[in-house]
Design goal:
The chain is mainly beta. It is 12% helix and 38% strand.
Length: 200
């Protein structure tokens, strides 16, 4: 009985840890991602490379290709694409596609996401909505509505609804730390231990 209780407690603890660490997920992806962890560590993940565990509160910059990013539980993540920061809400999922011109199309597939503009207004992007950010948009450093309706709430509480073909002001985030400045090496016991054969 005691062994069963200990085993059950171990399994519950393991399930809790997996749910905590697997809260930010990257599904289908074809391009490079730059992941900035909450401690400032910057990881660059090339296509085909295994993904690290992405903790709550991380930043994920989609540099090329496509990526599906989702959050579960109470986790949040910031996605950066085409120079625009998008805050992904709890329990939400979005697709990001980087076009050859550098323009990014961001579409919410579940839940919602938020863009904070340079004036402090917030744009809510709901399921089915798509925006285009980056080069070639109507408003410099802003975004265009491609599909759906995006509600923009100003700091004074006034709201406006933007439909496809309209441009909205955006926010250019500060530059992220350079990958060359970050130590991305991983120390393991094998790399520091003497593994030469024992002399007979």
């Amino acid at each position: 009985m005691i062994k069963k209780s200990i085993c059950l407690m171990f399994l519950l603890l393991l399930a809790f840890q997996v749910s905590v660490f697997a809260a930010v997920n990257v599904g289908q992806r074809t391009g490079t991602l730059k992941i900035t962890l909450t401690n400032g560590t910057v990881l660059t993940v090339a296509p085909g490379d295994p993904l690290p565990i992405i903790p709550d509160g991380a930043n994920i910059e989609v540099i090329g290709g496509i990526a599906n990013i989702s959050v579960t539980g109470t986790s949040t993540v910031q996605v950066i694409a085409g120079g625009q920061v998008v805050n992904v809400a709890i329990g939400s999922s979005l697709n990001v596609s980087i076009e050859p011109t550098g323009t990014a199309v961001i579409g919410v597939t579940e839940g919602s996401a938020q863009i904070v503009t340079h004036s402090g207004a917030t744009a809510i992007i709901d399921r089915g909505d798509q925006v285009r950010v980056g080069s070639g948009v109507v408003t410099p450093t802003g975004f265009d509505v491609v599909q759906g309706q995006v509600v923009l709430t100003q700091t004074d509480g006034t709201t406006t609804t933007h439909t496809p073909g309209t441009g909205v002001e955006g926010y250019q985030p500060p530059a992220l730390p350079s990958v060359s400045e970050a130590d991305t090496t991983v120390q393991t016991e094998e790399t520091t231990a003497d593994i030469s054969p024992i002399a007979q």
